Amino acid sequence: MNPIIGLVSLAGQYEAGFDKTSALLNSAGESLEWSGLEIIKSDTVMYDGGTTKTVANYLKHKDFDVLCVCVGTWSEDHHLLDLLEYINKPVILWAFPAVDTGSLCGVQQICCVLKELNRDYFYVYGEPDDVKVLEEIGQIARAAALKDRLKYVKIGSIGGRVKGMTEIAFDELEIKDRTGVRIVNLDEDELVEAFKVTDEEEAKEYWGNLKKRVGKVTSSDEHGIESIRYYFAMKKLTEKYELEGIAVKCYPKWMGKICLGYSILSEEGIVCGCEGDVNNTVSMKILYELSNIPTHNTDLLYPDMKLNTILFSHCGSGAFSIAGNIKDIHLGAVRLADTGVCSMFPAKPGKVTLINMVGRKSTFKMAVTVGEAVKCGMEFPGNPLKVKFKRNVDEINRLIATEGVGHHWIGGYGDMSKELEFFCKLNEIRLINF
Hints:
- This protein is α/β, with parallel strands linked by helices.
- About 40% of the residues lie in helices and about 25% in strands.
- The chain is built from 13 helices and 19 strands.
- The longest helix has 20 residues, at about 130-150.
């Protein structure tokens, strides 16, 4: 995700440092670009009604995700309020260290006003080349871009949720309100009909080529061809309804039938949630957008108190690229049902962010934890992901129980905790950090 930052400056014409504000703005812009962020910069310093209108006219038709305001000195706060009537974006208020300019004082004043008006804003403090400030601005900008991006996302729910998993019940109006994602409800019959018209010969050829790429295959050709036909069917539905994700009520009817299709679709950028869990299919989309890497769909299985690790896994529908090596992948029957095709492999090591989203109007929340995925074997017949934590894993599990967090955990590579914190703030989602 490549966010775009609208960059402006604000100062008081009678204040010390006013004449240096333009240089401060340019220096901030250069630093942001150096850090890899794209900016749209207005060179006009806002200090009265006329300059504010100039900035507004320049920016109001530009496409960006967040407005960053370089506050060079103390300034009358209403100039920014006037700009925000034209620019309805979250605001980053950047205060700069100085004794005599009143930059920090001015930012604190504006924070008070924006808080009273219930506007989305963030505060940063530091020199234009302060690496920590630049990193934080990037995290805020990515969260704002994520909020904008999700407004256009549609995720399909095929067949509803699994019977007996009341905890994954979802409120599609709440999901739309809090995340922007729209849920498209589809009948199981649509998947069945899409499957019937798939080309069996094409599926046979695809399956034959796929078998040559992976390390081990124990599923029968009959099940392999069937699984590829379900991949074709699901892909057809995603194209028909312009979906960027799907959640199929797979257990128990579709066990092993759609798992391989999930693996392939995930590589194509379509997030795929197990057991009809729509909330956490949205979680998958959130982590995918932030990392641009396919995610793990898991259950929390086993905490090792001695090693301070937790083993996560599910049946085996992970994207091939999150395996350590494609030759580690075993295409075999799903556990319990002993049928179909799952993509089974141990997860590759690296920093991971795990999230769970659950709840409804008064309880909607996101739980977030970050750890280090460590090398593991096939400790569960699926996609075992073993994560080592700094926090005591017994404490983590007690908090999960106390807070009533769900059982599906979505794992994405990289530390995205700050972006998620800012995203939750922008969307008024209760955040639980473990």
